[in-house]
Amino acid sequence: MAGLLTVDEALRAVLARIQPLPTERVPLAEASGRVLSEPARALCDLPPFPSSAMDGFAVRAADTPGRLPVVDRVAAGRPASRALAPGEAMGIATGGVVPEGADAVVPIERVVASGEQVEVPDPAAVGANVRPRGGDVLSGAVVVDAGARLGAAQIGALAAAGFGEVECARRPRVAVLTTGTELRRPGEPLAPGEIYESNGAMLRALLAEVGAIVEPLETVEDDEAAHRSAIERGLEHDVLVTSGGVSVGPHDLVRRVEAELGVEEVFWGVSVRPGKPLAFGVRDRTLVFGLPGNPVSSLVSSVLFVLPALRALQGERDPEPRYEHAALARAVRPDPRRDELVRARLTADGIEPLSGQESHMIVRAAEANALIYVPSGSEELPAGAAVRYLRL
Ligand code: AMP
Ligand code: MG
């Protein structure tokens, strides 16, 4: 088949068609998994004041060792009423404001406290156990940059730096349409010739992982009118993902109906196994992916192309698939013509290709936690060879 794009060319073609979605303000507590659309700069110094790292006594280092009167007790959130004078100590809690005049905190374990006196037996260093104002970040410095996807650590940092809300790309609205007369909803009895429809639930789970709001459309039979009305609905979304019906059979209607509805096909066919008959097009600002129906093909094509597109729509930095490297736990024979994504498991001995690599074998694929990228070629890759892979 002429005109197949390489995986890399196909990914470029997809990313070239993407314009990031508009942004919106999101309460920080709901921003987990969202992509920040502008740099977040600290709204205050952090810590905002010199803060004690220990429960103990605030002192002047120059007064240690020595026996000092305890003139105040500083709890967290309750600064002392006055500065510390030479020769004095103040009790202080972790997170308490180190009083003016003090330059060290001696931990409670290192003193002998008796009544309103404290005995400091060892010399304290200047700055000991004092967290300086702005030691974590200074007001105005970037806390989290634009294009970052917010995980727990970023959310914590943003909250600490004073953000109640952040500006994020709108979540992409994605319609998922599965096609095929043979498909039955899981949970119902199968009639002769039928199989369970599995791509819908799988794609919904996969796309939601990168922040998509997925609207599953009702599965359609291989019938033009049914395709037309469902695809029309799907095209109202930011992204339409169909499964099945993009090959060359008489019942493969998706591309034809999409063309009638004004979808401009950007490419059809990628030199990859599984997933060759992938179709990609656009109508206005809607991205349209036609995934092959075989479940493993649908999964692999989505990982290679749909997820990067969804990341790019949200303005994520580095939207492309993130390859890592490992050594093969056993030999692999490449496909002579097409690059291949081989379902595999990462183990202590390296990355191990699984048996059962055919594109309908979704249950075998469920054991995989990685996809090895095996470039086309004629030479066997021996055990121990370095390969790149994607985590699933
Ligand atoms: P197609 O791409 O429509 O030619 O379908 C290729 C193979 O995948 C056929 O065996 C279909 O029955 C199967 N298939 C298509 N769509 C689904 C789906 N949503 N769930 C499970 N299998 C599917
Ligand atoms: Mg079909």
Characteristic key phrases:
392 residues, alpha+beta, Molybdenum Cofactor Biosythetic Enzyme, Chain A, Molybdopterin biosynthesis moea protein, domain 2, Molybdopterin biosynthesis moeA protein, domain 3, six-stranded mixed β-sheet, binds adenosine monophosphate, binds magnesium ion
Give a summary of the structure in a few sentences.
With 392 residues, this protein is α+β, with helices and mostly antiparallel strands. The chain is 18% helix and 29% strand.
Task: Present the secondary structure layout.
Blueprint: H1 7-16, E1 23-27, E2 40-41, E3 51-52, E4 56-59, E5 66-74, E6 89-92, E7 104-107, E8 112-114, E9 117-120, E10 130-131, E11 142-144, H2 152-160, E12 165-169, E13 173-178, E14 183-184, E15 195-196, H3 199-208, E16 213-216, H4 224-234, E17 239-243, H5 254-260, E18 264-268, E19 272-273, E20 279-283, E21 286-291, H6 295-313, E22 323-327, E23 339-347, E24 350-353, H7 362-365, E25 370-374, E26 386-391
Parallel strand pairs: 5-6, 13-16, 13-17, 14-15, 17-21, 19-23
Antiparallel strand pairs: 1-12, 2-11, 3-10, 4-6, 4-7, 5-9, 8-9, 18-20, 20-21, 22-26, 23-24, 23-25, 25-26
Helix pairs in contact: 1-6, 3-6
Bound molecules: adenosine monophosphate and magnesium ion (MG).
